[in-house]
Amino acid sequence: MKMLRWLVLLCLAAATAALRPGAVQAAPAAPDQQILVMVRHPPDHYRPNGAYGGGYGDDLARSARERLARRIAQAHGLTLVDAWPMPMIGLDCFVMAVPAGRATAAAAAEVSRDSNVQWAQPNATFETQSAPASHNDPLYRAQPVARQWRLAELHELATGRGVKVAVIDSGIEGNHPDLAGQLLLNRNFIAGRAPAFEQHGTGVAGIIAARADNGIGIAGVAPGARLLGLRACWQASARPVRTVCDSFSLVKALYFAAEQKADVINMSLSGPDDRLLGALLKTVMERGSVVVTAFDPKRPNGGFPASMPGVLAVSDTVVAPSRGRVYTAPGRDVPTTQPGDRWFLVNGSSFAAAHVSGLVALLRQERPSAALTFVSARAGGGPIDACATLVRAARGCDCACAQAAGTRLGR
């Protein structure tokens, strides 16, 4: 007798699997071709031992409800697909497939009139209401330009594609995972010093052109640009990071950048007036290259080459108009690339200048030979409105028409 009871239970278990969560009775149709049919779930009987499931009576009840569901499906020309018991609300939910060519709303209305059914409804499709990530780089949201410059929106207009940016700095780790493929070349111009990967140059390069949407690190201001890594400076100390250069190394690197027809030349450095560098910089700019440099508040006129006419001088803090034509860009607590396949936070006008070099690359993609005009807080200086600047360059309008013209920018 005991063996017979176990055989009965096994047969019932096999026959009533449809009522167990996730059970499938037929190849499921697409959700938009299914309806949900609610059938009353009878109250569970009280048991002195507190057990409410898994017994002989439960199997019989499931079998009875499954048979009822199959009869409902058959009576209305549907196919039982799945089931989910919901005793908490006193219902069993059966998923039934509606034949192709038949409207699910009509099928649900018909089944709802069945006396064995509480109600039926189409299996509706829902979508989450989250917006896609601006960039999938994990540190993107920590980048000041993500919010201040609306970087992801700028990238809808330009990424710097086809623009060459010369980075005259310390050694760049070109095989860093966020810089791999971003350097056209990596050249050493320091006599007597072996090539090296160094913090300052690698950090500047990352801000300008780190790869975007590669699932790691940051997104550069101009990820479509390509870099010329020109090592003319070297790291003299690590803590604090001190990077130095000499005139000769800088001249060699700058001359090489001119030969390579670099569109943008980033020189995140400052020093005393230098006649040779000045003469060469003048020629480089006459040939069409844009030179971006860091403003040094400790030096008269921001130091050299910031003091030279035609050079874009950039500070990480607002500079008084009396100090000259100085632009302001993000340069505090900026995440960027670091040698050793790492990332770190940087501060200073060097990195503000790198942001502007990236922005110039975006502008050069849109208007390769046009004169640069920044929309900023004041004429010829102050914080740059990168979004308005690029909108005007891309669409030939001024800041006043950016709202109308920049629909892709979400303004």
Report on this model:
The chain has 411 residues and is α/β, with parallel strands linked by helices. The chain folds into 2 domains: 14-45 and 57-122, Alpha-Beta Plaits (2-Layer Sandwich); 140-409, 3-Layer(aba) Sandwich (Rossmann fold). The protein has helices at residues 2-15, 56-75, 104-112, 144-148, 151-157, 199-209, 247-259, 275-286, 349-366, 386-395, 402-405, and strands spanning 34-40, 79-86, 91-97, 119-122, 164-169, 183-188, 226-231, 233-238, 241-245, 264-267, 290-294, 312-315, 326-328, 334-338, 342-346, 376-378, 381-384. It has a 9-stranded mixed β-sheet with strand order 6-7-5-10-11-12-13-17-16, sandwiched between helices. A 4-stranded antiparallel β-sheet has the order 2-3-1-4. Strand 14 and strand 15 form a beta hairpin. Helix 9 (349-366) packs parallel to helix 10 (386-395). The radius of gyration is 34 Å and the shape is elongated. It starts with a helix and ends in a 6-residue tail after the last helix.
